[in-house]
Write a structure and sequence with these properties.
Structural class: alpha+beta
Largest sheet: 3 strands, antiparallel
Order of helices and strands: EEEEEEEHHH
Strand content: 25-35%
Strand order of the largest sheet: 1-4-5
Number of domains: 2
Helix content: 25-40%
Radius of gyration: 21 Å
Length: 116
């Protein structure tokens, strides 16, 4: 039987305390934890989203910096989510552009041509 959590918040500025944790297979245990009003990491029970406020480093690499580099190399256009909410056609046009761009790059790759 899988264990579920309502919400896990890992705080930034905090006070110490105890937290009951579980791995799902090896039972549960009490560990030292901290609590705060302003969490830097929030994981909801459904696990469908993860919000990190601050820097996320994976294997010594800043994830946001890495993603920005990938977007520049792949020439992915910057989105404006606020405008997309106001003008849904913008979002649709962006998605269509990305789809067509992907097809064009694949075709160029198959033909053995450069994308310059």
């Amino acid at each position: 039987m899988a264990n579920t959590l309502n919400t896990v918040n890992l705080p930034q500025n905090s006070t110490s305390g105890q937290l009951l944790t579980t791995s799902g297979f090896n039972g549960s245990s009490w560990t030292s934890a901290t609590t705060s009003v302003n969490p830097v990491l929030t994981i909801p029970a459904d696990g469908a989203s993860l919000e990190v406020k601050g820097k996320m480093v994976v294997n010594g690499r800043d994830l946001e910096e890495r993603l920005n580099t990938i977007e520049k190399v792949l020439q992915i256009p910057e989105r404006d989510v606020k405008l997309e909410k106001k003008y849904p056609k913008l979002k649709k046009m962006y998605e269509e552009y990305i789809k067509e761009l992907s097809k064009a790059r694949m075709w160029e790759s198959l033909k053995g041509e450069d994308n310059d």
